[in-house]
Amino acid sequence: MQYVFLIALMGMFCIKLSAENPTPGTTLVKGKQMASLKVGMENRKTGEPVLVFESGLGSGGGSFMPLLVSLPAGIPGFAYDRNGLGQSEIDTALVSDADVVHRLHDLLVESRVEPPYILVGHSLGGPLVRLFASYYPDEVGGLMFIDPTNYMLTREEDEQVKINTNSRTGYRELLPIMFSEMLADNALPRGVRQEISRVKRAGEPVYFAEYQSLAPLQNIPCIVLIAYNRRTEQAELELSKKTGINLEPWFAELDMIRVKHYAQLIKNNDNSSVVMLPRYSHGIHHQDPRLVTNYIEWLYKTVSSKRRQ
Question: 0.90 exceeded by the pTM?
């Protein structure tokens, strides 16, 4: 089953692709082995930015393979498996998103991946990179959000979407329903179920409670890629019948709210954009890795140029 409810152009130009394959490795962090993939790190110079990839719920660093193998030459990248995912050991001591963010920072330190970081977050990884930037603002040079979850959605907005679309269930209500269904699926790996359980507990009773009082972003370049008016999946149709969701208008309204919120997030950030991608899938970087790497190259050059000024 596809749990797609958890989601929430720039012209192409020629780039020289890296000839390197990502190098896998493991690092002991707080007594737990954590797996990572590195590309282009050997020739990285002191002070140059490095991409750090944060995956969506239940997926690991390997989900970014389409980007890692197509990064422009000279751009280093680091992707990893959160504890319990992929080849990283489960750690039940992690109970909050802040714990996850600090663990990533510990991993970067132990792996000798020094800042500045350009954080790339997909889906639920979007809120996580935002949280990382709030805890370590001096180490973050830029952010990219790939179809990020809308952690800023208010209860009032969600209720209005229900009214406007004649739907029985809102997005904030749907998440715990989806989490419960996923946790009941014994076919899911233990580590994935552990992460889902952690995220579910962290969001109760307050939706994204850790994100409610974050300081404004520093003035760093940000790119937000948002898929909208996408094709409806069969699993979504089945779930919409059980939850009373009028699917197409429901998604349409939530996507416009998401655009508004992320535009507000970056409103004071120079060299920043919200890019709407009609008919793209939630996995934009799988559907069109070249488009995403084009934006990555632009962001990397912008951050590098800004740091030299």
Answer: yes
Residue type, 236: E
Helix (H) or strand (E) holding 97: helix 97-110
Q: Residue 173: what residue type?
A: E
What is the b/e burial string over 214-233, where b = at least 16 CB atoms within 10 angstroms of the residue's CB? beebeebbbbbbbbbebeeb
Q: How far apart, in whole angstroms, are the C-alpha atoms of residue 245 and residue 196?
A: 23
Rounded to whole angstroms, how far apart are CA atoms 234 and 180?
19
Give pLDDT tens digits for 130-174.
999 999 999 999 999 999 999 999 999 999 999 999 999 999 999
Q: Strand 273-278 to strand 32-39: parallel, antiparallel, or no bridges (unpaired)? A: unpaired
CA dihedral (292, 267, 173, 213) in degrees, to 10, reads 120
- Integer Cα distance of 282 and 286 in angstroms: 9
Looking at this protein, which amino acid is placed at residue 73? A
162 and 169 in contact (C-beta within 8 Å)?
yes
